[in-house]
Amino acid sequence: MPPDNDLSASGDVYVSPRYLAGLPGHPDPSFDPVAHWPHHYPETGPCQLVVASPDHRIRVGWFGDDYDTWVISAAADPISPPRWTARINHVTPPEIVAGLTRALAEEWAENSYTFLTQPSVYWTDGMHPLLDAGWKRNPPCHGVVDIVAPDGLAGASIDVAAPDPDAETVTLWAGPPGWATRAEAVFTARTPSHLIAATAAALADPNPVIRSRTTLHPRLAELAQLTSVEPPKPAVPTPLDVHRAAAARRPTVLPAPSARRWTTSTPPPPARPAARPGLRR
User: InterPro entries this protein is in (predicted)?
Assistant: First the structure.
């Protein structure tokens, strides 16, 4: 089916590439992997929801209308400062955020520390899903390495020279520059490489996502490929289906028999035939 980028029509569409789909008006896909974790609703402050691991070492914060819509962090214990933080903005599709939250949900355990491991000394370990997908690596410039998608509409920037362990060194981005069109996920320097790779894999995932036309930003819709989601057509009935339908319409009550019904009354005796006259001799 050819792309359909007309936003004046109603209905749902498949959006490809997924990194141009934006936020559908709710964050549900990003919280699905951690839906079984405790939910907390702060009464004050801009944060609307915090989903934390049972031991409170991992926290996924939802800020709604703020620019940093998601703030995800992990710490050595519930009261220590975060070891690493990811800030993800309001244009990022939640299906991409789900790449990170799913990895955290699968790794968390009371005796697990894999989500706190030191990142690899090789920055390519966090970028291999993009490189494997054929995204182009540009030469380093001022200590920053850029990786760009074939369409030039998504990429990653890695600061390989920042000495501060809390510096924001990795940025995954998508869409043209602009407050309403540029998606960004920014990771601090001590974020484990495999968690960045899980997010990058969701960014490069070729599978489209579904959006309502009304939630798409016109600029993103112009750049993406939209395909209408049509309901499945009813199946053509087979000869067996026709036979079964006809059988179901037949009457199930048989007509009354024409034979004489049984009764307990005694029928009258048959009439005797009239006596014949005797033969004459």
Answer: DUF317_SPDY (IPR005523)
Dist. CA 41–CA 26, nearest whole Å: 16
Burial 178-207 (b: 16+ CB within 10 A, else e): eeebebbbbbbbbbbbbbbbbbbbbbbbee
CB 54 within 8 A of CB 38: yes
Q: How many CB atoms lie within 10 A of CB 213?
A: 19
Q: In what order do the strands lie in the sheet with 209-212?
A: 209-212, 12-16, 225-228
- pTM, entire model: 0.80
The full set of domain ranges for the chain reads: 12-228
| Average pLDDT taken over every residue of the chain | 88
Task: Identify which of 235, 247, 229 has the alpha carbon closest to the alpha carbon of residue 13.
Answer: 229
Predicted confidence band at 247 (pLDDT cuts at 50, 70, 90)? confident
Contact 65, 26 (CB under 8 A): no
